C-alpha cells in the first residue's frame, strides 16, 4: 500500500496548475517629477530604469498579495495600503494578504517611513494599480464570453456579466489577464461609491500582534546566530583609549571582545563589543568590562549651560527694520520666551539589528524605518555592491524617527563581519535612552502686537537650539531677520494671510550632543511657542481665544475646523471655575485643533479632565487608524509636557530608564474625544500632525484656570 503524502494546500494548487501564473502589476515613473506613474506588468519591473511603486500580485488560485514596501511601526500602513488597493480591485480585506519586502529602490522606489507620507504620497498610484488590475480582469472575462467589456463589472473578487449574471473568479481569469497590456487610463471611483475606504475595518496586523506571531526585530533568529552588546562612550564623541577584558573573557559563552564603531552623521563614535552565545551572557560580560575613555577635545556640557547659550543666542539675529517699525506701531505689544526640553525617543522596543555579513553580500533584519537609506549606507561604507545588500524590515515597536537612522545597522554589520557569523546586536533600555541622537531642546523669543481693531499687527519668533546632526563645534553666525518670509513649523499657514507683519529667525548653538528628528519634527517644539504666544496676544487684545484665532483665518477650511472644535467641545458653555485652552496646528498636509479642559481637584491640584481633538487630513482611508494615531499622539505629547525630559550632566545624559524618564500612567490619561473632518481636500498625514497642538492647548488651559502662563516644558501639574 502506498504511503500517504502530506500535501499543503499551496503545494496542491501549484501542482494542479492553479498558481503557475500570476497577474503582477507595478508603477513606474519614466521621468523624474512625474506626478502619476505608468502602470506596468511585473515582468517589466526588473528592466524599469527609475522609480517604481509597490506592486500587487493575483495568482491562479485567486490569492491576492500586496508586497508592502513601507515599514509598520504602529501607524497603520499595514492596513491603509491594502485597503486602498482592495477598494479599486473590488475585493474585501479578507481576500488580501500582505507581505513585507526588503529595501529595493529599483523595484519599489523610495521607501521611507517618515513625514506621514504613506497615504498622502502614494494614494493615486495605489488606487490606479488596483483599478488597472480590475480592468484587465474584466477585459479577460469579456473576451471569454465574447461580449463588450462595458457589459461586465467586478465585484467581490469576480467578474459578473450584467445581463446573464454569469460569473468568473479572478483566479479563473488571471492567466488570460496576465497577457493583456495594462490600460493607459482608468476611471477611479467617486468617494460616495467606496465600499471599504473610509470604513473602520479591523487592521490586518491585529491578530499577529495579539497572538505573538508578529515578528519584531528581537524575534529574528538565524542558525548559528550570536548576540552582542556594546559598551559605548556616554559622552558621544569620546574615543576608546584602552580596555581590559580579562574578567569578561573568563565568562563561559563569551566569544570575542573588540573595539567597534558606529557612524553618526559625519562622525564615527566608538565602543567595545562583547559577543557571546546569548544576550544574557553578553550582558554579564559587559558588566565586567573595564574601558578607559579619551574624552579630550570637546566640551562636557550641563543642561544649564546649553539653555544659557540658547537664551543668549535669541538676541543675536540681526533685526528687520520693517518689523521693528511695525512692532513699535502696534497699539499694544508683548514679549515672551519659551523653552522646550531635549527628549529621548524611548520606543517601547529598544534599538536592535541582526546582521549576516559574508564576503560578497550583506543581509540585515530589524525594526527599520528607512530600508533604502540603510541599504545605500551599508553599500557605500562596506564597499559592497548595492544589489548585494538586503535590508529586511520587521515590525517596529515604535520608531518616531530614530529607527530611520543608519548607525545601528552599520554597527551590527561591522560586528558580524568581524565574527564571520550572523549577530544580533541589542541595545539595552539604558543604551537606547542615553546615547542619542536626541530631539534638541529649543528656546524661543516671541514678540508681537495688536492694532486698534484688536487683530495681530506684528508677530515675530526667534529660535535657538541645535540643528539635526552631531552637534556644532562653533556658534552659529547671526543672520538678518527678513520681513514676511519663511514660517514657523506647526503654525497654521492661514495666519500668514491675515498678519500684516511677521518674521522668523533661528540660531544654532555650540554643542557636541547629537540631535535628530522626533515625531512631528520642528512642529513638536515650535508649535508650543507659536500657539501659546497667539493665546497671549488674544488676552492682550481682551478677546476670546477661539474667536481671536478665527478672526485670523480667512480660508473656509480653517474656519470650518475651528467651528467644529467649538461645537464638539461646547466652547461657549465654559464655566468660570474650569480652565479651557485651545490650539490649532498644521503639518504634513493636515490641520489639527485641540481643546483641553482642566480643573482643580478637591486637594486643589490641577487635573486634566478632557481633550477634544479635530483632525482634518482631507481624503482618508481608515477612521479607526486616524483616531488611534490622534490618541497616541496626545498621550506622547502629554508625557513630553508634564512627565519626562533628557538632562545632561558633565556631557552625559542623566535619565537612563523609565524610573526617571517617566511615562504617563493610565490614571494620568484624560478622556480623549476625536472627530474627523469630512471634505474633498487632498490627503494629509495622520501619524504625526496631532502631536504639536496638545502642549500649547494644555498651557493655555492652565492659564485660563490659574492665571499662570506655562512657558517652559516639562512642568508638574501639582506645581501650578
UniProtKB/TrEMBL annotation:
- Aldehyde oxidase/xanthine dehydrogenase a/b hammerhead domain ranges (all copies): 211-297
Sorted alphabetically, which PROSITE patterns does this protein's record hold? PROKAR_LIPOPROTEIN, TAT
Where are the coiled-coil regions? none
Q: One of this protein's Pfam families, by short name?
A: MoCoBD_1
Under the heading SUPFAM superfamilies, the entry gives: Molybdenum cofactor-binding domain
MF term (GO), any? oxidoreductase activity
Q: Signal peptide span per the entry?
A: none
The entry's protein name is: Xanthine dehydrogenase family protein molybdopterin-binding subunit
What is the taxonomic lineage of the source species? Bacteria, Pseudomonadati, Bacteroidota, Cytophagia, Cytophagales
